[in-house]
Amino acid sequence: MKKIFTVLFLMMVLTACGSNSTNKDFNSDTTNLETTKKNTNSEEMTEHNYQFTGESEHWEAVYFYEGTELWGENNEQTTHSSKDSYELVLKYKGALKELSSMKNLEYTYETATSSGTKTEAYKEPPSEKVFTIRGGSENGAIIGEGEVIKVNVKWADSEESFQLHNKAK
């Protein structure tokens, strides 16, 4: 059992080390996947890989989600563990110079089981119009492929809210 968790942990670490959000094409057509596999210990592993997208008048966003569930048995009792990671990439649709007077940016996301907020303060105008928040958890709830993710963005004296939906749905 320890070997399986070690292998899963190494896979997650290597996957995280190998991904670079700057290499992700904002409009890429990543396939949404949910796969289930059985290993030699009669454990069942389900992988969830989804991409949720949406936009408002001034912003567009992509929420990349990867989750793994491991089901097994220990002393005739069913066991379950999970691990997930996400990356929310928010992009301003206008010209960068339109953000030159922006002093603060706050963006939030909300799923059925989790939420996150990031606030950035600027003494100088931002040098990019793409903003990212990342995270993950262990043994938390897994996001479903039909989830609707709510995004809210506050900048300058403006605010917009919109929803992200699974591209495959």
Distinctive features:
single chain, 169 residues, mainly beta, 9 strands, elongated, disordered N terminus
Give a structural overview.
This protein is mostly beta strands. Helices cover 10% and strands 53% of the residues. It is built from one helix and nine strands. The chain has one helix at residues 2-18, and strands at residues 33-38, 44-55, 59-74, 77-92, 104-110, 115-121, 130-138, 149-155, 158-166. Strands 1, 2, 3, 4, 5, 6, 7, 8 and 9 form a nine-stranded antiparallel sheet that branches. The two termini are 36 Å apart. Mean pLDDT is 83; it is low at 1-25.
Structural class: mainly beta
Overall average pLDDT: 83
Strand content: over 45%
Apparent shape: elongated
Helix content percent band: 10-25%
Discrete helix count:
1
Largest sheet: 9 strands, antiparallel
One letter per element, helices H and strands E, the order comes to HEEEEEEEEE
Query: Could you give the count of β-strands?
Result: 9
| Low-confidence residue ranges | 1-25
Termini gap = 36 Å
| Rg from Cα | 18 Å
Question: Could you give the topology of this structure?
Answer:
Blueprint: H1 2-18, E1 33-38, E2 44-55, E3 59-74, E4 77-92, E5 104-110, E6 115-121, E7 130-138, E8 149-155, E9 158-166
Antiparallel strand pairs: 1-2, 2-3, 2-9, 3-4, 4-7, 5-6, 5-8, 8-9
Briefly say what this structure is:
The chain has 169 residues and is mostly beta strands. Helix content is 10%, strand content 53%.
